[in-house]
Amino acid sequence: MSTTQPLPLSVSGGASPFSMSGFTRLCKGLVVVLVAAHIVVTVFPSAVTYVALIPARTIPFGWNLITAGYIEQSIYGVVVNTLGLLFIGKLLEPVWGPREFIKFIFIVNVLTSVCIFITAISLYYIKTQETYLYMPLSGFHGVISGLLVGIKQIIPDQELPALKIKMKWLPSINVLCSIATSFFTLEAMSYLPAIIFGTYMSWIYLRYWQRKSETKYRGDPSEDFAFSTFFPEILRPVIDPIASIFHRMLCGRSSASNDAQGYSLGAEPLPGSDSIEATRRRERGARALEERLAAAKSAGELPTDAAQNV
């Protein structure tokens, strides 16, 4: 089976992922939700106690596990996350489809909030500081971090212009930069857990749970999407044994059945399943990007020589 060569980033997704066109209706709708929620909590500050994630109030107000991810308390968060949603969404939504795209956002948001809640409660019992119980936590950055993992899966070999950084490293760089900046700010607790858990929960979903409509299988068992690929190659011999423990915990039972997992038979993957699925995934991504390129060309947004680069 022939493999699909990665498209040049300058023409990916219709002209460029960074062009101010081609944003999907779903992403625009979510942007309206984020902006409207920010306006509400700005005009009515007391609303934060009901919609943000405050661990001490989560038991009576359990809905904040859902709403917290869509509440931006700062204008900086609104700008960064809405731009991230628009530009990343126009690459991922055509490949996944609107239904899977919104499903991914909902699941990653809820799982991230649950992990943050558990972490805050644990830190309170360890350090006995009530700050962990009453700090209002919210923001869309966990979902944005998860969408970067989707970019890593769909178009890992694309490069950012000028920086020459492959897309597959964006989730790792995002987490690393967030950890680094946390040493210089007291507000790290408000964003760092969401970024870390958003990245990890999205990888779990894409790796083990996402249903492939064309194959009826779940997840992505390819080697180039293994957990160790988030780390430099020199660290992978150390990461792989640790990751295998969580692999057995997450899918050990399902991998015992070919019907449940679809990729595995016993403890071993079916021959060729990794490479076949990886090729199909990249072909889907390339096909969606080519369609957006053709649409942009027909609208007169691209020069003819740009289309010839595909």
How many helix segments?
13
What is the string of SSEs from the N terminus onward?
HHHHHHHHHHHEEHH
At the first level of CATH, the class of the domain at 25-221 is: Mainly Alpha
> Could you give the order of strands across the largest sheet?
1-2
CATH level-two architecture of the domain at 25-221: Up-down Bundle
Q: What would you report as the Rg, rounded to the nearest angstrom? A: 20 Å
Largest sheet: 2 strands, antiparallel
Global outline: globular
Structural class by sheet pairing and helices: mainly alpha
CATH-defined topology of the domain at 25-221:
Rhomboid-like fold
Structure description:
By secondary structure, this protein is mostly helical. The protein has a domain of 197 residues: Rhomboid-like fold. Helices cover 57% and strands 1% of the residues. It is built from 13 helices and 2 strands. It has a two-stranded antiparallel ribbon. Strand 1 and strand 2 form a beta hairpin. The relative contact order is 0.14. This is Rhomboid-like protein. InterPro entries: Rhomboid-like_sf (IPR035952), TMEM115/Pdh1/Rbl19 (IPR013861). It is a multi-pass membrane protein.
